[in-house]
What does this fold into?
Amino acid sequence: MEFIVICCLVCNQLSTIFIIKYSKKQYICIMDIFKKIKRIRTEKKISQQDVADILGITQAAYAKIENPNNPESRKISIEYGKGIARALGVSFNELFEIESPANIEEMQVEIKRLKTEISSLKEQLSDKKMIIEFLSSSDILVEVAAALRRKENPERIVKRDFNDVEGLLKEVEGLPYDPGNKESLINYIRPRLKRI
It folds into this structure.
């Protein structure tokens, strides 16, 4: 997984953007941003001088920003970054590949939805595990297997046990137990299964 980290540091009132890409557990500077700046500028037929004028610097100083081999191009002030974005007619966030608040809000909504779905699925899984444990602790499966071996229809056994379980559930219905603690219900039902 790769992602971009943009650190904005304020040192002696100088805000600087350091563009770093995290990849394969090591940090590398992205020169692609500066190539992107140059690509957008040339596609829109904007001269270096036009961008330099907006930034209030010389064309030679701006050329150093676009030069990936220049150590100074590894960092630019936020003010210059905003000026370059304005000169190129793109947003600062788009130019420097920063997630916008709208995208973050959308992701937060999606994360909340997924957490709710996971919670629901965990609850369903817990219910299914309880049913499996309930059935495993009763002799219904053994009786059904025996009926199948005798080539009998196990429906009679299932109906009988279903009616017995239904009666047990009616008996349990009024009892106080914590619905969040299904073990308490299982512990109540288990000894009564012996009589079914």
In short: The beta strands are 3-11, 14-23, 26-29, 75-77.
